[in-house]
Amino acid sequence: MKKKTVSRILVTVAALAMLTAMLGGCSGKGENTVTSEPVVVLEPQSANNPGAASEPAPEVEDATKSGRADGERFDDTIILEGMEETVHYEHAISFPVGVELDYDYESFKRNTEPERITFVSLYDDEEKPENYLEITFSTESAESVIASESEALSKDYEILTSERELTNAGTCTRIEASVIKGTNDMADQIVVVYVIPAEDGCRIAKAHYAIEAAEGFGHRFNYMLDTLYVLKRS
User: Fold this and answer.
1) What is the number of other CB atoms lying within 10 angstroms of the CB of residue 87?
2) Which of 4, 82, 148, 164 could form a disulfide with 174 if both were Cys (CB 3.0 to 4.6 A apart)?
3) What are the pLDDT digits (tens) for 80-104?
4) How far are the Cα atoms of 117, 122, 163, 203, 210 from residue 231, in angstroms, in the given order?
5) Stated pTM of the model
């Protein structure tokens, strides 16, 4: 009996102590008054130098605009010579050049280099291709590149300059070199240059194809360029 009585007394004393603490934390207006120690926020420190502030995170490569991954494959439909044709596309991304676009992987081979990306016909000699699309970049303005490209092509061709609206890249300048200079004869090899303005200069796409393949490769290159997005170069 004595042990039980002592236990009850201890429980009662503990309860009274808790109640007193709760009442003591209240102000005369019934509001809780909370006191705390000041919080000290420390600056992040470098692992190699504990006393130094951390360096900013490195800049991440610009995201793609199409939402597709490099190498992603899908089917689409194009019109060639008035007929619908299903093409098997592969997505290609080049941050060094600053472009992404789709190409028919059953018709072209992609070659990616630090300063250019090319799509060469699978039916051509890769060492001496006749039908291919080459995309490079320039840090010069679009106007400057248009002038230099026109001057170079004018040595051998009668050139035709016009504007072209690309579906994803906007307005660009198209320079066609298809007629031999001083004649009315079509050249065996046609060159069409597209100068696409960009924030850091421009992108330059050059389509090369044989005159007899103009209806085929010429139209395929047009479709490919309509899928092109200009990216921030890394």
Assistant:
1) 19
2) 164
3) 988 999 999 999 999 999 999 999 9
4) 14, 27, 21, 10, 30
5) 0.73
